[in-house]
Amino acid sequence: MKQTTSASTGWDKKGKVTRRERFLAGMDAVIPWAPILALIELHFPKAGNGTQPMPMERMLRIHFMQQWFTLSDPAAGDSLYDSESMRRFAGIELVEDAVPDESTILRFRHLLEQHQLTQRICAELPQINLRILQAALPDHRRSPAICAVFRASPQIGVGLRQR
Fold first, then answer.
1. CA–CA distance from 45 to each of 40, 51, 91, 98, 109 (Å)?
2. Does residue 5 register a pLDDT over 60?
3. Are 150 and 67 in contact, with CB atoms under 8 Å apart?
């Protein structure tokens, strides 16, 4: 069990659920994580000599947040320190987990680009039922953040925005 900070404990007790929290919870519920992670696993660095790689799912979630909130690599790293809801979506607890820096985020994005994994990830995304997505995220029905998930891709017609 992870040890929580006093900030995390306070966050749990607050009364208001923010739009960002609702958005991230909705996306967490509708994205098919297992098949997407299976695509990346073949190319993701394994633990061994040198430093331990960041958890693959954490890096994928950060990559998705970069797309949805239009964050550069440095801004994505900073947002993980600034936003409790983004840390929770990425599965980061500041007391126990390392927060990836901008170069780690950059290397993950380059890995996806190098192996053309964003196109393969996009093939998994059309299976998401838009009605379920809209029901989960009523405040974001016309949001550019949702459009970033379903943006047109030359290969398959639906996809994530490439940087």
1. 10, 10, 19, 17, 13
2. no
3. no
